[in-house]
Amino acid sequence: MAPAVRAEDLGAGVRIVELPGVERAATVVHRGPMDGVLPTAQALARWIDAHGHRSAGYARELTLACPEDPREWVTELQEPLASQVC
Predict the structure, then answer these.
(1) pLDDT digits over 54-82, tens only?
(2) Integer Cα distance of 77 and 75 in angstroms
(3) H runs (alpha helix) in the chain
Protein backbone atom coordinates (compact mmCIF):
# COMPACT_ATOMS: atom_id res chain seq x y z
CA MET A 1 0.00 0.00 0.00
CA ALA A 2 1.27 3.46 -0.88
CA PRO A 3 2.18 5.83 1.94
CA ALA A 4 -0.25 8.53 3.02
CA VAL A 5 -0.41 11.54 0.72
CA ARG A 6 -0.31 14.09 3.54
CA ALA A 7 -0.52 14.08 7.31
CA GLU A 8 -1.28 16.84 9.78
CA ASP A 9 -0.09 16.42 13.36
CA LEU A 10 -2.75 17.62 15.81
CA GLY A 11 -0.74 16.77 18.92
CA ALA A 12 -1.61 14.29 21.70
CA GLY A 13 -0.98 11.38 19.30
CA VAL A 14 -3.73 12.46 16.88
CA ARG A 15 -3.07 12.89 13.16
CA ILE A 16 -5.27 13.58 10.16
CA VAL A 17 -4.07 11.50 7.24
CA GLU A 18 -5.22 11.62 3.63
CA LEU A 19 -5.14 8.07 2.26
CA PRO A 20 -4.51 7.18 -1.36
CA GLY A 21 -7.41 5.83 -3.40
CA VAL A 22 -7.91 2.11 -3.94
CA GLU A 23 -8.96 0.37 -7.15
CA ARG A 24 -11.49 -2.00 -5.59
CA ALA A 25 -13.31 -2.10 -2.28
CA ALA A 26 -16.25 -3.87 -0.73
CA THR A 27 -18.46 -1.43 1.16
CA VAL A 28 -21.47 -1.48 3.44
CA VAL A 29 -23.43 1.29 5.15
CA HIS A 30 -23.92 1.12 8.92
CA ARG A 31 -26.78 3.09 10.45
CA GLY A 32 -26.70 3.90 14.14
CA PRO A 33 -24.08 4.42 16.84
CA MET A 34 -20.60 3.03 16.36
CA ASP A 35 -20.84 0.91 19.49
CA GLY A 36 -23.15 -1.31 17.41
CA VAL A 37 -20.95 -1.50 14.28
CA LEU A 38 -19.51 -4.99 14.90
CA PRO A 39 -22.37 -6.96 13.27
CA THR A 40 -22.17 -4.72 10.19
CA ALA A 41 -18.40 -5.21 9.93
CA GLN A 42 -18.82 -8.96 10.37
CA ALA A 43 -21.45 -9.05 7.61
CA LEU A 44 -19.03 -7.27 5.28
CA ALA A 45 -16.25 -9.75 6.15
CA ARG A 46 -18.59 -12.70 5.52
CA TRP A 47 -19.59 -11.27 2.13
CA ILE A 48 -15.93 -10.80 1.14
CA ASP A 49 -15.13 -14.40 2.11
CA ALA A 50 -18.26 -15.89 0.53
CA HIS A 51 -17.50 -14.22 -2.80
CA GLY A 52 -13.86 -15.34 -2.96
CA HIS A 53 -12.27 -11.95 -2.36
CA ARG A 54 -9.47 -11.07 0.00
CA SER A 55 -8.65 -7.92 1.88
CA ALA A 56 -5.75 -5.79 0.67
CA GLY A 57 -5.00 -3.06 3.14
CA TYR A 58 -6.49 -1.21 6.03
CA ALA A 59 -10.25 -0.98 6.50
CA ARG A 60 -11.70 2.51 6.30
CA GLU A 61 -14.70 4.27 7.81
CA LEU A 62 -16.36 7.25 6.17
CA THR A 63 -18.86 9.26 8.19
CA LEU A 64 -21.76 10.15 5.91
CA ALA A 65 -24.02 11.73 8.55
CA CYS A 66 -23.33 12.57 12.16
CA PRO A 67 -26.33 14.35 13.67
CA GLU A 68 -26.62 14.92 17.40
CA ASP A 69 -28.58 11.68 17.95
CA PRO A 70 -26.17 8.72 17.49
CA ARG A 71 -29.10 6.53 16.43
CA GLU A 72 -29.19 8.59 13.23
CA TRP A 73 -25.49 8.30 12.38
CA VAL A 74 -24.62 6.88 8.95
CA THR A 75 -21.15 5.39 8.37
CA GLU A 76 -19.76 3.63 5.32
CA LEU A 77 -17.34 0.78 6.04
CA GLN A 78 -14.85 0.18 3.25
CA GLU A 79 -12.56 -2.82 2.86
CA PRO A 80 -9.96 -2.56 0.06
CA LEU A 81 -9.85 -5.73 -2.04
CA ALA A 82 -6.92 -7.40 -3.76
CA SER A 83 -7.02 -7.32 -7.54
CA GLN A 84 -8.26 -10.60 -8.92
CA VAL A 85 -6.07 -12.50 -11.34
CA CYS A 86 -8.00 -14.47 -13.96
Answers:
(1) 999 889 999 999 999 999 999 999 999 99
(2) 6
(3) 38-50
